[in-house]
Amino acid sequence: MDKGMEPGPGVPNILVVDDVAANLKLLGEILKTEGYKVRQVPSGELALQVAAREKPDLILLDVMMPGMDGYEVCRRLKADPGLKDIPVIFISALDRTNDIVTALALGGVDYINKPFIAEEVKARIRTHLQIHRQSQELLELNATKDKFFSIIAHDLRTPFAGFFGATQLMFEELPHLSQEEVITFAKGLNDSASNLYRLLENLLEWARLQRGLTNFEALQLPLMGLVEKSIGHVTDSATAKGVQIRLEIPKGLEVVADEYMLESILRNLVTNAVKFTRKGGEVTIAATQSGEDSVRLSISDTGIGMDSAMLVGLFRIDAHNNRKGTEGEPSSGLGLIICKDFVERHGGRLWVESEEGRGSSFHFALPLRPSAVA
């Protein structure tokens, strides 16, 4: 199966590009004293390969190099959608105004003259890493705002409009409806109300996350009972679709988790699994002890799966993954983002294995003992 997972946070990774070995060594020593991860390469060609593979947080780039000079490296970096936002600081013995202007016009964020001073290099790198981080945070805030308005404008407005239309039609036609037709109408209204409630629940939960209002309290919890409680509301929709929910959880197994967050994780993942599984399919909730300190939980389905393009942006707020379920069930994409945040609050990681047409499996781990929770 294809795999897609979120990388964990780490210290900044800096790519240093210079054809002079002594410069590489000196810059590497300066940066490592600051705790940065440092990758050193002696040519522009290698720099492009490493940048594409490792996506550094910042690049220190020499101007004068044999073969491909620093200007051309920068030009190619900025032409690549996946690399164009990486800050590039030029380092060079060239100190003419037109050299500096050229470097900045090509997209460099700064220019340091050789021979460089260690404290100056450190200060400029700190500044540009902070600016870049703030820029990324601003982009994420804008994406969050766009997502919110998208939900209000479409994901929430459309089902409300359908719900309102159905109630109005039922009110107008009620005297002429048979008992069977009234039951059909009532079931449709109930389904619409349930979908709206779940969407509002996720929207409010997400809003609390954004404001930092979600408390965290880790307790020793019996896993089977919690799973059964969490998926109680999903069983009706699963039964209606003929989707079987199987539990493979060892008797007596306990985990350490925040009860509210774990319920939300399970509820969202199982709801999604049922939503994207066709009639007659199967959803499995499994738990296995992983080593001595953790329990691995998996929610697997035999549904429609996902292609590699969808997997890339699955847990990103700025990606559009709100496709409909196999029976037209609505989806905002918020549930998975909430799951990711809640799993990370437990010090864990949420990842997925999926293949188009062959189902999906979501996995995460929880600690067995209170001491394992930060």
Describe the structure.
- By secondary structure, the chain is α/β, with parallel strands linked by helices.
- Helices cover 48% and strands 19% of the residues.
- The chain contains eleven helices and 13 strands.
- Strands 1-12-13-11-10-8 form a six-stranded mixed sheet.
- Strand 12 (351-354) and strand 13 form a beta hairpin.
- Helix 2 (44-54) runs parallel beside helix 3 (70-79).
- The longest helix is centred in the middle third of the chain and has 56 residues, at 118-173.
Please provide a brief summary of the model.
This protein is an alpha/beta fold and 374 residues long.
Record keyword descriptors for this entry.
five-stranded parallel sheet; disordered N terminus; 48% helix; 3 domains; single chain; Rossmann fold; six-stranded mixed sheet; 11 helices; 374 residues; alpha/beta; Helix Hairpins; Heat Shock Protein 90; 19% strand
* Low-confidence residue ranges: 1-9
CATH class of the largest domain: Alpha Beta
Give the CATH superfamily of the largest domain: Histidine kinase-like ATPase, C-terminal domain
Describe the strand arrangement of the main beta sheet, using strand numbers: 1-12-13-11-10-8
Q: Terminal Cα separation, in Å? A: 32 Å
The coarse overall form would be elongated
Give the C-alpha Rg: 26 Å
**SS summary, helix count:** 11
Number of domains in the coordinates? 3
SSE pattern, N- to C-terminal: EEHEHEHEHEHHEHHEEHEEHHEE
